[in-house]
Design a protein that fits this description.
single chain; 333 residues; alpha/beta; Rossmann fold; four-stranded parallel β-sheet; 15 strands; binds iron/sulfur cluster
Length: 333
C-alpha cells in the first residue's frame, strides 16, 4: 500500500550550489539519523561543501540549531517542512521526506466512512498527495476543502502536533475530515479541536479508520493528570529555549495565575525535556509550554505528571473541564 521513503535531495543540492556554501550543518530526526552519513557524503560530493552532522535531537522546523550556527554558513534539515514564522539567522534548506500512499485502494475503504463536504488534512510526508486526493474524492461526488493554516503552516491542509489551524479554518464548512498520516495523535487533536469525525488513512494499514475509540481513553488520561496537578505541592512551568517552541510570555502569565491561587510555582527553562531531567529537578508536577506532544503524546515516559497549559487552568479552577482544549501554539489566556 505504501511506497518507501523518498528524500528530495536534488533541490537542496541546487540551492547549496547556488549559494556557494562552504560549510553546512546537517540536522535530522532520530528516525532518519542512520541516513546521515549517506546524505552528508552526497552533499559533500555534489557541492564540495564541508558537512557537519548534528548529533542532537531535531524534532521539527521549530528546533533550530542555535548553538551550532557559528560553525556553518547554512543548515540543511531533513524530513520536516518549514515553519514560516520561525526564522533562522543562517539560510535553512529543507530536504522533504515523501511517502506515497496507494490512494485508489485507501480511498475505496474511506468513502463509506466520509460525510461530504470533506476537509483534507495531512502530515508532512503526504502533503504531495493532497491535491490528487481532492480530485479523486471530487470524482466520487464529494465536496472537498483544503484549509489554509496560520503563520506556522507553509502548505494548506498541513497539520502539526502544535498547530491545527488548517483544520479549524474549514471546520464550519465540512462534515468530516480525511487525514493522510500515520499515528493517531494528529487525528485526536483535529477531532478535539473541531468536533468533527476524522477518518485516518494510515500508510501502515490496509484500510482507512475512523478515529473515535481513542478519544475516551485520551480524555481519561488527561483527567487523571489534572487530578495529580491539583494535588502537587510544587509545580514547575517549563519553557523551551528552542526558538520555535518558546512560549515564555504564556508561562509567565500562567505562573502569575497559579501564584494568585496560592500554588507554589516556578518557571524552568530547558532545551530538551527528558524523564531524567525532570526527576532531577524534583518538582511534584510539571506544566510544559514547549512542544505540546511532550505532555500529550509522551506522558507515559515520565514518572511525574506533565500537563499542558489548559490542564493547569483546569487544575487551579480557571477553566471548566467541559471546556477543555487540547494544547496548540495559538493557545492564549
Ligand atoms: S512544536 Fe512539536 S509539533 Fe510543533 S513543529 Fe515542533 S516538534 Fe512538531
Amino acid at each position: 500500500m505504501v511506497e518507501t521513503l523518498r528524500l528530495e535531495i536534488d533541490s537542496a543540492i541546487d540551492e547549496l550550489t547556488k549559494m556557494k556554501t562552504k560549510t553546512v550543518l546537517l540536522q535530522m530526526p532520530s528516525g532518519l539519523k542512520r541516513k546521515a552519513q549517506e546524505i552528508a557524503d552526497e552533499i559533500r560530493n555534489r557541492t564540495g561543501a564541508e558537512v557537519l552532522i548534528s548529533g542532537d535531537s531535531c524534532y521539527g522546523a521549530c528546533d533550530l540549531p542555535d548553538s551550532s550556527l557559528r560553525f556553518v554558513d547554512a543548515v540543511v534539515q531533513v524530513g520536516h517542512s518549514p515553519i514560516p514564522s520561525v526564522r533562522c539567522s543562517k539560510p535553512m534548506i529543507f530536504i522533504r521526506a515523501k511517502i506515497s500512499i496507494d490512494l485508489k485502494k485507501a480511498l475505496e475503504s474511506a468513502v463509506h466512512l466520509l460525510k461530504s463536504p470533506v476537509g483534507l488534512l495531512s502530515t508532512a510526508q503526504h502533503l504531495h498527495q493532497l491535491q490528487e486526493t481532492k480530485s479523486m474524492l471530487e470524482e466520487k461526488g464529494f465536496r472537498v476543502f483544503i484549509g489554509p493554516g496560520s503563520g506556522r503552516i507553509e502548505e494548506d491542509g498541513h497539520i502539526l502536533g502544535c498547530d491545527y489551524s488548517s483544520a479549524k479554518s474549514v471546520s464550519d464548512s465540512v462534515e468530516s475530515f480525511l487525514l493522510l498520516g500515520g499515528g493517531r495523535f494528529h487525528a485526536i487533536g483535529a477531532r478535539l479541536l473541531t468536533g468533527k469525525p476524522v477518518i485516518i488513512i494510515d500508510p501502515e494499514r490496509e484500510t482507512a479508520v475512523l478515529e473515535d475509540t481513542d478519544i475516551d481513553r485520551f480524555m481519561r488520561r488527561r483527567f487523571a493528570i489534572i487530578q495529580k496537578i491539583k494535588q502537587a505541592e510544587s509545580l514547575a512551568i517549563i519553557v523551551s529555549s528552542k526558538v520555535g517552541q518558546d512560549r515564555i510570555l504564556l508561562a509567565q502569565r500562567l505562573s502569575k495565575l497559579a501564584s494568585q491561587k496560592n500554588r507554589n510555582c516556578s518557571i524552568v527553562i530547558m532545551d530538551d525535556l527528558s524523564p531524567e531531567k525532570l526527576l532531577n529537578l524534583g518538582f511534584d508536577a510539571y506544566i510544559s509550554t514547549a512542544c505540546p506532544r511532550i505532555a500529550l503524546d509522551d506522558a507515559d515516559r515520565y514518572e511525574k505528571p506533565v500537563g499542558t497549559t489548559s490542564e493547569l487552568l483546569v487544575a487551579i479552577g480557571l477553566m471548566d473541564w467541559e471546556n477543555y482544549k487540547i494544547d496548540e501554539w495559538g493557545f492564549s489566556i
